[in-house]
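Long-time lurker. I teach an intro course on protein structure, and each term I like to show students one example going from raw sequence to a predicted 3D structure in token notation. This year I'd like something fresh instead of my usual example. Would anyone be willing to generate the tokens for the chain below so I can use it in lecture? Attribution to the forum is fine with me.
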Amino acid sequence: MATAVPAFGSVVLDCADAPELAAFYARLLDWPDPEGDEGWMTLRNPDGGPKIEFQSVAEFRAPEWPSPKKPQQFHLDLTVTDMEAAHERAVRIGARLLDDTSYHDGSGFRVFADPAGHPFCLCAC
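-- Reply from a regular --
Happy to contribute to a lecture. Here you go:
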């Protein structure tokens, strides 16, 4: 049945190297290896739902966080149950910590940059 209501299919991140950034997120999320080529990679959620896709862009310029002159546009929020373990794992595979707003009770979030410079948050659930 056709409908005028769109379905949420994917989020696409521009980057300088689609295979490299797709591999980073596959490791971070423990998802299957990405599919595609140098210009476009697809990372499929093993539980179904939206995909994350990566597009190689000539002269890519990473967002700056925080910067009112060059805003981030959007970021990914990823939920975790063990902030410390998730933090260590993210850094080990190439993320860079930008801001830590986690609290002693284990709540809060930490902002990281992926290898291409896109901000993403690990959020304690």
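Some talking points for your students: The helical segments are 18-29, 83-92. The two ends are 37 Å apart (CA to CA).
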